[in-house]
Amino acid sequence: MVVRWCKQYSRMPVITKLTPNVTDVRRPARAAKKGGTDAVSLINTINSITAVDLDNFAPMPTIDGKGTHGGYCGPAVKPIALNMVAEIARDPETYGLPISGIGGVTTWRDAAEFMALGAGNVQVCTAAMVYGFKIVEEMISGLKNWMDEKGHRTLEDFQGRAVRNVTDWQFLNLNYITKARIDQDKCIKCGRCHIACEDTSHQAISKMKDGARHFEVLEDECVGCNLCVNVCPVEDCISMIQLEPGMIDQRTKKVVEPSYANWTTHPNNPMAKAVEPAE
What is the pLDDT of residues 105-127, one digit of tens each? Predict the structure, then answer.
């Protein structure tokens, strides 16, 4: 209704800014499109309380002993923003709707990621507050260098390229099996991978060998969850290696199948149905 009113009484293009403080961002995006919006921008800030003063027992910042929620922004909200941009870009009802990406854009890579997920441009606020407007010039030069390196002549060459590879979890290929591998030459023996896996995952990383600290993946326990890769402080020290079709998965003792299979067809799924092709 608001968008329709704006389009009726204004000759200016209407860009509808969408809040992330909803259950499903596609619904307001669909409504905006039906109202005739020229584009959508997202995301706005996220309602949050970032800290509590434990002396005064009030949210911070505190005003006259009281505090309230505020809008959380910056790099911490980027993953949420990327997901919501992708949801609108791949939704059949909003497909093709111009999108302006917002949320934690600090480097050229951030901008490229938003565009790869369907945004036509990005907006920068927090980074300019922290580093000044010159940060935008650095983003532009960095993006140009990356585009030259990859052979992209225009933004349209990569805009939306990642959208087709975004799917719902139940359609991920269950026959794509990976195992973690630790590069012993790069390993600094900090033990973070072992602690994370031992205490919160699948106890699939040993910590000793011949009486010395040595971290190695136990293939018969590894489920390929990727947690160790995320906690390792050394770049490329831990990699996820795909098991080729025909190989034996030491954890399940089953042969890795070459065919595509997903949760909708899995025998453990009480609502399993016929195989659907991967998109």
Answer: 999 999 999 999 999 999 999 99
Task: Give the whole-angstrom CA distance, residue 38 versus residue 90.
Answer: 18
Q: List C-alpha distances in Å: 108 to 86, 98, 104, 111, 271.
A: 18, 20, 11, 5, 44
Q: Do 267 and 205 form a contact (C-beta atoms < 8 A)?
A: no
> Which residues, including other chains, have CB under 8 Å from residue 22's CB and lie 6 or more apart?
28
**Do strands 254-255 and 248-249 pair parallel, antiparallel, or not at all (unpaired)?**
antiparallel
Confidence class for position 279, pLDDT limits 50, 70, 90: low
User: What contacts 85, CB < 8 A, 6 or more positions away?
Assistant: 42, 99, 101, 114, 117, 118, 119
Tens of pLDDT, residues 5-32: 999 999 999 999 999 999 999 999 999 9
Q: Do residues 137 and 128 lie in contact, with contact meaning Cβ atoms separated by under 8 Å?
A: no
Q: What angle do CA 114, 120, 122 make, to 5 degrees?
A: 55
Cα separation, 98 vs 117, whole angstroms:
12
User: Three-state secondary structure along 100-123?
Assistant: EEECCCCCHHHHHHHHHCCCCEEE
Q: 62 with 56: CB under 8 angstroms?
A: yes
Tracing tokens 């309380």 back to the chain, one arrives at 49
Q: Is 7 helix (H, G, I), strand (E, B) or coil?
A: helix
Q: Do you know the residue count of the chain?
A: 279
Give me the residues paired with residue 72 across strands.
46
How far, in Å, CA of 160 to CA of 220, rounded?
39
Kindly state the percentage of the chain with pLDDT values over 90: 95
Residue type, 46: I
